[in-house]
Amino acid sequence: MSYIKAGYKEMAFNNPAYHRLFELLLRNDGYVYFHCTAGKDRTGVAGFLVMIALGMSEEDAIQEYLLSNIYL
Questions:
Q1: Calpha distance 61→12 (Å, rounded)
Q2: Average per-residue pLDDT in the chain?
Q3: Are 38 and 71 a contacting pair, CB within 8 Å?
Q4: Count of C-beta atoms within a 10 Å radius of residue 46
Q5: Nearest to 45 by CA among 26, 71, 17, 24
Q6: How high is the pLDDT of residue 57?
Q7: Residues 38 and 72: beta-carbon distance below 8 Å
Q8: CA 36 → CA 10, 22, 33, 46, distances in Å?
Q9: pLDDT tens across 41-68, in order?
């Protein structure tokens, strides 16, 4: 399990796509739509990072992310 956690940390902090997403979010006055087929891995982590950036608590963001285990 620690390998999986390490993989998600690596995905979150060393992914140029997330840097690009946040650049778009910071420069856009309107909506930004991002998606994928399932929304669990890269897109789910992107959503998690956006929730944290918008001020959601880490605990609440984790709970929101974990809903993908139920609904996807």
A1: 14
A2: 83
A3: no
A4: 21
A5: 17
A6: 96
A7: yes
A8: 19, 17, 10, 11
A9: 888 889 989 999 999 999 999 999 888 8
Q: Which residues contact 21 (CB under 8 A, 6 or more apart)?
A: 32, 34, 46, 50
The pTM of the full predicted model, rounded to 2 decimals, is 0.75
Host domain of residue 22: 2-71
Q: How many domains does the chain have?
A: 1
**For the chain, how long is the longest CA-to-CA vector?**
39
Given a contact cutoff of 8 angstroms between Cβ atoms, the answer to whether 30 and 37 are in contact is no
Backbone angles phi, psi at 36, to 5 degrees: -155, -170
Share above pLDDT 90 across residues of the chain, in percent, rounded to a whole number: 35
